[in-house]
Amino acid sequence: MLERLFHLTANGTNPRREIIAGLTTFAAMSYILAINPDILSAAGMGKEGLVTVTALAAGIGTLLMALFTNYPIALAPGMGLNAYFAFTVCGAAGIPWKGALAMVFWNGIIFLLLSITGLRTKIAESVPPALKIGVQCGIGLFIAFIGLRNGGIIVKDNVTFVRLGELSNPSTLLVLTGIIVTFALVHKKVLGGIIISIFLVTMIGFEIPKGEGMVTVAPDSIWGLPSGIGETFFALDILYPITHLSEAWKVVIALLFVDLFDTIGTLIGVSRQAGLVDAQDRLPKMGRALTSDACATIVGACLGTSTTTSYIESAAGVQAGGRTGMTSITIASCFFLALFFGPIIVIIPPEATAPALVMVGVLMMQGVKNLKFDDLTSLAPAVVTMMIMPLAFSISDGLAIGFIVYFGTMLLVGKWRKVSLLTAALAILFFFFYVLNL
Known about the structure:
Blueprint: H1 2-6, H2 15-29, H3 32-40, H4 47-69, E1 75-77, H5 81-92, H6 97-117, H7 119-126, H8 129-150, E2 154-157, E3 161-164, H9 170-187, H10 193-204, E4 209-210, E5 213-214, H11 240-243, H12 245-274, H13 286-303, E6 308-310, H14 314-319, H15 325-338, H16 342-345, H17 350-364, H18 376-391, H19 395-412, H20 421-434
Antiparallel strand pairs: 1-6, 2-3, 4-5
Keywords: Cell membrane, Membrane, Transmembrane, Transmembrane helix, Transport
Subcellular location: Cell membrane
GO molecular function: purine nucleobase transmembrane transporter activity
């Protein structure tokens, strides 16, 4: 039966190798079970229910990828987009989380239509590589900044806007120590280094004072039945983006493009490593993979989480020998099993997830090496994009300014013919919206 479903022999693998690969990927990305609830709870949703939602969204999304494509690729709520959802869309913009979930839902619907029609890949190819890199690195800085802020290492200042926190504070010192340990574990390529760091900081937190209590609060039980999902299950205000179009459209565009770049980059990168691409470096089932990703986002929004997307950590499982959907089935099973350990996951404090956020941000910055430093028409817009995102505390604002600066620069230096029609149209649209307030 396994042979018929996953074609193990044809892919040069076996059940044991696939299971080990699945466990490897889960260990590499399981940190999302702690981080996603911690981030999204800032939008006003209950943390306990978000643990259930995160595990379900990851499990269902990964299962869809396994059944539709037979690829060893895992999905879960995406880093960066969850922070954008909680801190920018719901926080700074004041949009209710039910309305924000509806934006994620419609983003998934648009994504699905683009995937079915084949336009999704063409759109991604029409955006200049420099802007893609700028968006990726900008999100990395955005995530790292949130980690430093949540950990108390960076705090608000009325004169200089931000300043260094009190490192003599035991909880802040714990975060700094956690960052250093996380860097060391990941550098040494320790399997599950990020989740190990989260575990260590959480355990030490039982002994570190914070306010009138401790950093980590003891759980009532070790395991329990999944709970709390009733608050967010199909709670999205599906008409909100339509009735509030003026504030919703730029959010949907940001979600669309970030997910677009992230998903295609992950699919190609992981599939290339697994030897799944053809002689033209194309993924045979790209359409199915993109459709699976879009469906996962739609399902995730209905459950109550931000955009669900393909994870680059899938490469860890591929490196361990994963080649088929059986790897993804194993990963999905682990996420479904995690549903019963909510009482433990929910006590993980921000001090434990902050180092993980910084680490993920650093890893996302690695794309900067692919920028053309001798070409200012590419370098400058990318750098502006990655600076605006953390400083304006908005992925959509960084994306918009990046397009405007890129098109404006190419126009003035006489290279406007090299700009794709889509890039020019978006730059003009963003210019009218941001500069002329139309």
